Amino acid sequence: MRLLPCLTTLLLTISTVNSKFVTDCTNVGDGMYPLGACEPRFLACVSGEARYMDCPEDLVYHKNLEFCDWRHNVFECGEEGEENEFSGDGSGESSGDEEITFGDSSGESSGDELLENVCESLKDGVYSSGTCSSSYIICNSGSPRFLSCSTPLIYDPTNKKCSWKGMIDECSQVSGEYCESDGNISKSECSNVFFSCSEGIAHRRNCPANLVFNPAISSCDWPKNVMDCSEKSEKPQNCGEVDGYFSFGRCSSSFSACTNGIPIVMFCPDGLMFSEKNQMCDYEWNVDECDLESSGFMENYKASEALTPCTNMDNGLYALDCTPRVLSCQNGRENIFECPPSLVFNENSLICDYPETSLKCCMEDALLIRDASIGTYDCSIDGLFSSTLCSRNYHKCSNGQLIPHECADSNAVFSASAAKCVDSSLLEQCQ
User: Fold this and answer.
1) What pLDDT does residue 309 have?
2) Any signal peptide, and if so, which residues (predicted)?
3) Euclidean distance between CA atoms 228 and 206, whole angstroms
4) Among 267, 288, 368, 402, which has the highest number of CB atoms less than 10 A from its own CB?
5) Distance separating alpha carbons of residues 272 and 54, to the nearest angstrom
6) Count of CB atoms situated within 10 Å of the CB of 175
7) Chain centre to alpha carbon of residue 104
8) With contact defined as beta carbons under 8 Å apart, do 311 and 331 qualify?
């Protein structure tokens, strides 16, 4: 007879525990809800619609902070989780700090002991916490203060400030075996990307907007003065036979738009290459034509050293432009998952949130080029468009006709997001 009361008590206990967690979005507001204690899965509710989401590998959902976190940071996971997961998190931190020489770091030292001794043998000043890292350390009287640049900036140890990754030398270094002699070299025809070789070290460089690398003078120049560009611009590939977009060369940032047999030279934004296969400007690692192994350039380049989105990036979550996609980097491995519909990933709060809360969604169209079809510039859609960044020139499409325009003020540039001319000091890409 005692069995029945025991079962009743057990069922009530289970019911009480389950009642703490939301199982559907029927009677709750928009937001993120845990599906259990110390669980990697959580529920996203948007306008009454439910979507189940998973944290990246080795992380669990932190209900108080509303993002995925290490187990040892989540109270519900208990001490056991902390012991099991601490080594993973600690290794990530220590790998970055090893760029600075400090104290004894034997295998028995804990991560906390390592951090306490960072500034012990250093003069007062600012130091990078790793090669091409967004984190840096301020040492004052032997005491460290750990800071991080705003996304997507990287700390520049030479100029002692946060800056864009492409402007920092240590972020663009390539193994010296690819530099036979000092000077500038390019790996593709009619491209705005080139490598500057100095003392056996190659640094990746980008020409300013509208310019390409001219091997004849070993510097950036107008396309009309570059033989590789002028030959192709006079008679673009297949122009007159088939309308479309055609690359000027292998892994090139320049391309030709052919419409009714008339070629128009166009350029991808700084840092992007034209993918003839996908008919869009994209990051180099997403463009088949930029495959280093088949290009013949840098024959000794090892596949294991090829650039990926997670190369030289700390473990964590990163927003992929102003989109629902989230990049998870764990020890160099990449995984991509998505936020619920109508939400984007916010790198500051590390949660899926509304677009107006995201820094990347507030920036100019420089970060949206990958997801914008180049077809929007062929005047099939009426409106105002710009083919380059930070430029006074823009186009007006009306009834299929392309009408060129220019901002009247010499200090003004065209803002695609505002669809008007604004002062250049207001745009991030013009700084």
Assistant:
1) 63
2) 1-19
3) 17
4) 267
5) 31
6) 14
7) 35
8) no
